[in-house]
Specification:
16 strands; elongated; 30% helix; seven-stranded mixed β-sheet
Length: 415
C-alpha cells in the first residue's frame, strides 16, 4: 500500500512577515507602552525616512561634472571652422581670406562662399535675431552658474536664421560670407578687407578698388562663428553679434583663444572646441600713427591645454553608508522627541488635569477571560484531586495567555 506524502503549503507573505532583524531584541507586547503621541511620532518618522531614501536615490542617479586639464598632444588634428557673417558692403568690393603660421592660403582649408544680400532684415528675421542675441548674451554672462545644467540637458543652440519672407526691391547692399573650413592647429588670421586678393606661394595681396565710388562700411552681423561640432554646454560668445560703424576707416579685431574640449558621457565621447574672445576697435589714421588696413580681423590661436568634461557618479557604497546613518539618526531622534513629548504631556496633565493623570497611572490587576473559565476550572479540579491522592497540599498559581487586565484580582488556591 503506497503512502501519499502531503506537502505543507505555505503562504509566501507569511514567510516575508517572519523576517525581522530585531526579533531577539523586541520587547513582549504585554509590557509595551503605547500612546497616541508615540504612534504619531512613529508615522512621521517613517514618512521622513521614505522621503530621505527617495532624495538620496535621486541624488545618486543625478550625475555631477568633473573637469580635468591635460596637455593637448594631438597636434595633427584639424579644427572645423564654421562661419556665417553678413557685411554691409557688396561682395564685389570685399574679399575674405585666411592665413595661418604655415603660410597656407584659403584654398588649402576649404571654400568660403560669398553671396549678395540685403543688410536690413525682414520682420521674422529681425525678431529671431534679437531673441537669439539676448539669449546668447545671457548665457555668456551666466555661464558659470548654469554650465552644469547645460551639459546635462543634451540641448544646444543650433537654430538657423529663417528665410527672408519679404525681398527688397533695391539693389544688393550687403554680402553674406558663410561656409566651413578645416584649419591647422596653429595660430592664424581670418580677415575681411576691401578689395579682392591675389594669392602667392608666400601669402596674398589685397587690391583695393580704385575706381568704385562705394564707401567702405565694415558694419557686420555674425549669426554663426564656432569651432568643431555644436554640443550641449558650449556657448559661442560671438554668435548673434552686430557691430555698426559710421567711419569707413574703422578696423575691428577679434582675438580668439581656442580650447580643445572632450565631453565624455556614459554613452558617447565627443571632441569639440570652445573659445574665449577679446575685441578691439580703432580708426585708421596714418597722420597720428594709427596704421593698418580697415576691415574685420579674426586672429585665433589654439590653447596647449585640453579640457575633459566627465559625467561622474559617486560610489554606491557611500550611498548605502549615508542612507544607513541618516535612517538610524532619524530613529534615534524620533525616540528622543517621543520621550520629550510624553514628559510634556504628563506635566500638562499633572498641572491642569490631576484626576485624569491619576487615572492613567493606575495599575490594573489581571482577570480571567470569562469564555475560558470552564477550562480553567477543569484544570484546577484535576490538580486538586491529584494532590489529595498524593497527600500533599499547596498553592497553585496559573498564568496563561488568556489572562487580561481586570479591576478584581483572582488568586487560585488548592488545598
Amino acid at each position: 500500500m503506497s503512502e501519499l506524502r502531503q506537502r505543507k503549503t505555505t503562504n509566501p507573505l507569511d514567510s516575508f512577515r517572519e523576517l525581522d532583524a530585531f526579533k531577539m531584541n523586541k520587547l513582549p507586547e504585554e509590557i509595551e507602552q503605547k500612546s497616541n503621541i508615540g504612534g504619531t511620532v512613529s508615522i512621521l518618522s517613517r514618512l521622513l525616512i521614505i522621503l530621505v531614501i527617495y532624495k538620496e536615490v535621486k541624488y545618486y542617479f543625478d550625475t555631477s561634472l568633473i573637469f580635468r586639464f591635460e596637455p593637448d598632444t594631438d597636434i595633427l588634428q584639424h579644427i572645423k571652422f564654421n562661419l556665417d557673417m553678413t557685411v554691409k558692403m557688396p561682395c564685389r568690393n570685399i574679399g575674405a581670406d585666411i592665413l595661418d603660421s604655415t603660410n597656407q592660403n584659403t584654398f588649402s582649408f576649404g571654400v568660403i562662399e560669398e553671396e549678395d544680400t540685403w543688410w536690413n532684415l525682414c520682420p521674422e528675421q529681425k525678431q529671431h535675431f534679437d531673441y537669439m542675441s539676448h539669449l546668447n548674451r545671457y548665457l555668456t554672462e551666466e555661464y558659470h552658474s548654469i554650465a552644469e545644467i547645460m551639459y546635462k540637458t543634451n540641448e544646444f543652440l543650433n537654430v538657423k536664421m529663417p528665410q527672408r519672407s519679404i525681398k527688397a526691391v533695391e539693389p544688393y547692399d550687403a554680402c553674406r560670407i558663410h561656409g566651413s573650413l578645416k584649419l591647422n592647429k596653429v595660430a592664424g588670421n581670418f580677415h575681411v578687407t576691401q578689395g579682392k586678393s591675389l594669392h602667392f606661394p608666400q601669402g596674398h595681396l589685397h587690391l583695393n578698388i580704385l575706381f568704385d565710388d562705394v564707401k567702405a562700411n565694415f558694419s557686420h552681423r555674425i549669426t554663426k562663428l564656432s569651432f568643431g561640432d555644436p554640443q550641449s554646454g558650449i556657448v559661442q560668445p560671438l554668435e548673434y553679434e552686430e557691430k555698426i560703424f559710421m567711419d569707413e576707416k574703422a578696423m575691428i579685431m577679434y582675438y580668439i583663444e581656442i580650447v580643445p574640449t572632450d565631453i565624455e558621457t556614459f554613452v558617447s565621447h565627443v571632441k569639440t572646441y570652445q573659445y574665449s574672445v577679446k575685441e578691439n576697435t580703432r580708426i585708421i589714421d596714418h597722420d597720428h600713427g594709427s596704421h593698418g588696413m580697415p576691415g574685420i580681423y579674426i586672429k585665433y590661436d589654439v590653447s596647449a591645454l585640453r579640457i575633459n568634461v566627465l559625467l561622474g557618479r559617486e560610489n554606491i557604497v557611500k550611498l548605502v553608508i549615508r542612507m544607513c546613518s541618516v535612517i538610524a539618526g532619524i530613529i534615534v531622534i524620533s525616540s528622543f522627541v517621543n520621550s520629550i513629548l510624553l514628559k510634556m504631556w504628563e506635566s500638562f496633565l499633572k498641572t491642569f488635569a490631576p484626576q485624569v493623570y491619576a487615572l492613567s497611572q493606575e495599575k490594573l490587576p489581571l482577570k480571567v477571560d470569562p469564555q475560558k473559565t470552564a477550562n480553567i476550572y477543569d484544570v484546577l479540579t484535576k490538580s486538586s484531586k491529584e494532590s489529595h491522592n498524593e497527600g500533599k497540599g499547596g498553592n497553585i498559581n496559573l498564568l496563561t495567555n488568556n489572562l487580561l487586565f481586570s479591576s478584581d484580582p483572582i488568586t487560585l488556591t488548592t488545598k
